[in-house]
Amino acid sequence: MKTSANEKRHILLDNVRIHHAVKALKDLGLPSIKELAEQKNIVLIYLPPYTPELNPTENCNSVIKSFYRKHRPRTEEELRKVIEEGIAELKKHDLRNYFK
Q1: What is the number of other CB atoms lying within 10 angstroms of the CB of residue 96?
Q2: Burial letters for 20-50: b for 16+ Cβ neighbours within 10 Å, e otherwise?
Q3: How much is the mean pLDDT over the chain?
Q4: Which H, E and C letters describe the chain, residue by residue?
Q5: Best CA proximity match to 59, nearest among 89, 80, 81, 79
Q6: Which residues form the Tc1-like transposase DDE domain (predicted)?
Q7: Which of 6, 35, 42, 85 is the right S-S partner for 31, CB 3.0 to 4.6 Å?
């Protein structure tokens, strides 16, 4: 994704604790996610807690999980195949709707 130097980008995050990991990163001498985002001209948008229905990736994961439950892979090779087929089931039209 190419953007101009002044153009802000937005990232949608759920409210899982790791997305706010200030202390753990500070202990490692690393900037927080918020600090790093600000340095890169990125605006972080956090979803309200317990709202997976607002997270577009949850819709995608739901399709793949459904495919998994239907096919019940027993080996790593079968699992990879089921995941690939599940991803292929995601229709372009649906993806656009998930991320509107």
Answers
A1: 9
A2: beeeebeeeeeeebeeebeeeebeeeebeee
A3: 85
A4: CCCCCCCCEEEEECCCHHHHCHHHHHHCCCCCHHHHHHHCCEEEEECCCCCHHHCHHHHHHHHHHHHHHHHCCCCHHHHHHHHHHHHHHCCHHHHHHHCC
A5: 89
A6: 4-80
A7: 35
